[in-house]
């Protein structure tokens, strides 16, 4: 019988790898389609990696390093890391992509709302019975 904490790790890993697969599909299918058809998609084709980066980072840190941080702290750290990455990249490229920065902030806020609504727990908080 699989322990509940191992089951939770498997769920977090599955969601994380599903988000990676979604980003790959969007990169090879949606982005070229949006660019070739000149869609006004509110910069979705440009910023979906930043938007999905927060839940992806939270899922993988919970699956592999969950003993250290609570979910809200994890959401905050991943969002700050991605925002910092965008700022450093912006200083190196001499243009800060504010759409990606705002996508990270929006994604972090939505992840926190999902946490409050659904009550996600750390892997260690699932009691093995």
Q: Which helices and strands appear, and what pairs or packs with what?
A:
Elements: H1 4-36, H2 44-64, H3 71-93, H4 98-118
Helix pairs in contact: 1-2, 2-3, 2-4, 3-4
Q: How do the SSEs run, as a string of H and E? A: HHHH
CA-to-CA gap between the ends? 10 Å
Taking all Cα atoms into account, the compactness measure Rg is 16 Å
Number of strands: 0
- Shape designation: globular
Please state the average pLDDT score: 88
This entry's quaternary arrangement is: single chain
Estimated helix fraction:
over 70%
Strand percent estimate: under 5%
Which structural category fits the helices and strands?
Answer: mainly alpha
Unreliable spans: none
- List the total number of helices: 4
Question: Mind summarizing the main beta sheet?
Answer: none
Task: Label this structure with key terms.
129 residues, mainly alpha, globular
Question: What report would you give on this structure?
Answer:
Helix content is 76%, strand content 0%. It has helices spanning 4-36, 44-64, 71-93, 98-118. Helix 1 (4-36) packs antiparallel against helix 2 (44-64), helix 2 packs across helix 3 (71-93) and helix 2 (44-64) crosses helix 4 (98-118). The chain contains 4 helices and no strands.
């Amino acid at each position: 019988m699989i322990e509940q904490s191992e089951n939770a790790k498997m769920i977090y890993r599955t969601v994380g790898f599903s988000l990676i697969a979604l980003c790959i599909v969007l990169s090879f299918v949606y982005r070229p389609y949006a660019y070739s058809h000149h869609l006004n998609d509110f910069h979705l084709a440009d910023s979906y990696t930043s938007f999905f980066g927060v839940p992806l980072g939270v899922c993988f840190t919970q699956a592999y390093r969950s003993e250290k941080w609570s979910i809200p702290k994890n959401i905050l750290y991943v969002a700050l890391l991605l925002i910092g990455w965008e700022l450093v990249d912006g200083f190196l490229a001499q243009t800060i992509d504010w759409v990606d920065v705002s996508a990270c902030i929006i994604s972090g806020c939505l992840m926190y709302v999902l946490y409050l609504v659904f009550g996600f727990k750390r892997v260690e908080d699932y009691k093995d019975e």
